[in-house]
Amino acid sequence: MSRLSEYLNRHIVGNVFDRPSICNTYSTDGSILTYTPKLVAIPETQDDIRRLLRFANQLAARDLRLPITMRGTGLDKTGASIGPGMIVSTEKLNHIEEIDVRGRLIRLQPGVKLGELNRALRLNGLWLPIGYDNNATIGGLISNNPIDDYNYKYNGIFSYVERVEVALPSGDLVQLAALPQRAAESRAKEDSVEGVLYRKILQLLDDYADTILDRSMRPFDAEGYANIVRVKEGHMLNLLPLVFAAQGTLGAITDIILRLEPLPSVFQRMMVSFHDLKTAQRFMNYARDLKPYMLKIIDLDIIETAIKNGKKLDFVTRKLGKGILVMVGFDFHRHKTKRCLERLSELLPDNAQQLVETVDNCNDFEEIESFLVNYLNDSEGERTAILDGAFVPNMNFTDFVQGVKTLEQTIGKRLPIYGSFASPSYSLRPDFDLADFGDRQEAVDFMQMYAELVVSCQGSITANYPEGRTRAIIQLATLSVTERQLYAGIKAAFDPLNIMNPGVKLGASAEDVVRHLRTREKGGIITA
Which string of b and e fits 109-147 if b means at least 16 CB within 10 Å? Predict the structure, then answer.
C-alpha cells in the first residue's frame, strides 16, 4: 500500500494516504458497520478523480482489486460510504463555481455542503429547499436521494439537478442531462465511451420493457436502480436519474448544475403536543392538506429524556407523559401563512398546549433540534442509524405506532419515533451496545422484525433511503430474477469491471454485513 500511495501521489494534485490512523478515521459512517480502507485519497481536482478511477480500473483489468468508495462527509446510514479498498473523499472538491442569479442556476463541485450552500445563496435571495442535515454534501444528497423534511412541498434534490458530470471507472467523463430521443439515439451510434453507454442503456430499455413497467408500479422503493423508470419519458431520454440513489456504484460525480428557488420572505411554525394519537393524526391530516413546507413529529419521550439531561423548553408546562410533539411550518406570504396557522389553532381543544412562532420565542423552535441531538447522544448508549427513514402511508400511521410499541416490549428497549408526517418518513434509534456480542445479534434481529412491521403497514424500508449494505441484505430477497438482471445490466454498462463500491446494493451479502458490524462506539457526536 505504501508503494501504491507513493505512485498515486506522484500523479495527482491532492493526496493519498495509507497511514493506519488516517484510514481508521474513514472506517465508519452513519451506520452500524466498520470497514478499514487500505488507502484514503483526497483529490483536489476533477483530473485527480479521473486518474484515481482509471488506475483502479487498470488494476482490475489485471485481476488486482482496489475497489473505490466515494465519500462526502460520511453521513450515509447504510454503510455505503465506507469500504475495504480506496476511499475517495470529496472534502476538497467544495467550490461554488458559478451562480446565475437571474436564471436561478448554480454550478458547483460535489463536496459543497448543503448548509454552506444555502448560507451563500441567502445573500442573493435564493435557496435550495432541502430539509436535511446541513453537513450533507450535494454529491451525497444525489447519491442517496433521501426523502427530506421539505420533500412534500419541494419534491427533494431530484427536482433541482439540471445536469451532472460523471467520471466513469475508465476515467472518461460523461455529462448526463435530458436529451430528445433522436439526439440520444444519434449519440448511441458514436464510437466513444459515451456512445457505448447510451447503446447499452437503450438496449436494456428494450429488453426489459415489461420489467421496467412492473417496477413503475412500486414508486415507494428505491432499491436497485429504481430510477430506470424515469430514464425514458415521452420523447426525452435522460440517464441522469440513474445516478440518484446509486450510492456511488456507477461512477463519481465531479460537477453539478442545480436549479434554485426564490427564498421565501416568511417562515413561521407552530408546535402542538398531543397525548391522544387519533387527535394528533386528524390534526396532521388537515395540516398536510394546507401544503406546509414542513410537518415533523417527535415522540415526547425524546423531549423528556433531553429535559432530564438538563435541556429546557418553556413551551412544556406540565408532565409530558406519552404522546407526540407536532411541528408544522408555512412559507407562504404573511397573510396566507397567518390564515393557515389560525385554521389549525381552531382545530385544537381549548386545553391543548400550542405555541405559534414569534420573534420572541423562535429559539424554542430551534431548541427542538438540539433536543433530538441530546437524545441521540444520551448516556444510555449509542443510538446509531439501523433502518432510518422508513416509509409508512399516512392512513396506517396509527397501526405503525402501535406496532412499534409492541416491538418495544419484544426487544425490551424504548423506541420513540421521530420524522416527517408530510413526506412521510420515520426513524427510531434503539440503544444497542455494539461491543456486546449478544446486542450485535439483537441488532440484526431487530432489523428483520422492524422491516416486517413496516411492510405489514404497507410501507417500505427503502422508499426514503436506498439500501446500501445494511438494507440490501433484507431487500435483495424481494427482487425478481428479471429485476436483478436489469440492475446488473445497468451496473455493467457504467462499471464493467465492478470497481465502484462493489459491496453495496446488488453486491451486498449478509455474511459480509454481520462480519463488519462495529464492535465499539463511533467517536464524535451523532447529529442525525
Answer: bbbbbbebbbebbeeeebbbbbbbbebbbbbbbbbbbbb
User: For the segment 292-340, what is each residue's pLDDT rounded down to a tens digit?
Assistant: 999 999 999 998 888 888 887 776 655 566 889 999 999 999 999 999 9
- 3-state SS of 374-388 is HHHCCCCCCCCCCCC
Report if pTM > 0.85: yes
Helix (H, G, I), strand (E, B) or coil at 350: coil
Structure letter (DSSP) for residue 94: -
For residue 188, the Cα-to-chain-centroid distance in whole angstroms is 32
**Residues forming a β-bridge with 356:** 270
As beta bridge partners, residue 420 has 296, 425
Residues 6+ apart with CB under 8 A from 179: 187, 236, 237, 238
- pLDDT tens for 235-272 read 999 999 999 999 999 999 999 999 999 999 999 999 99
- What pLDDT was estimated at residue 368? 83
Cell reading at 457: 403497514
Q: What angle do CA 77, 80, 84 make, to 5 degrees?
A: 130
